[in-house]
Amino acid sequence: MTxxxxxxxxxxxxxxLCSCSPDDADQDQRPQSPIIGTWLAYEYRKEYDxxxxxxxxxxxxxxxxxxxIHPNGTFRCGAYPFQPETEGYYKIDxxxxxxxxxxxxxxxxxxxxxxxxxxxxxxxxxxxxxxxDYFYEVRFARQR
Length: 144
Hints:
Strand order of the largest sheet: 1-3-4-5-6-7-8-9
CATH superfamily: Calycin beta-barrel core domain
CATH class: Mainly Beta
Order of helices and strands: HHEEHEEEEEEE
Low-confidence stretches: 13-28
Structural class: alpha+beta
Number of strands: 9
Helix content: 10-25%
Radius of gyration: 24 Å
């Protein structure tokens, strides 16, 4: 092989090797938060209640009781006690999730704390932005 054909061959080989980046494969293997997914609420209680109450009534009224947390940073939240159906954006900081309904994400509409996630169930405490004392807890089952 002469120099005139060797250098173009070497350059082509190097370009082919460099164009296949292993970073593409790593993007699919990034760790994902366990809270991402579709959750169906089945029980709730307000801060001063002793027992959890069924969420079945929401289905009969035609309201969704799902919490859908997408990996792309958006969410859709069904109607829970004192929480209207809403959608928007979220930020996760450890187990605390802040939900925003505005594009600028300046002030959270509400936040929640995932208190316990076991298998396909979660206990979540919702905290309205206007009150530091008031909360309600919701039990969810992960949907497949």
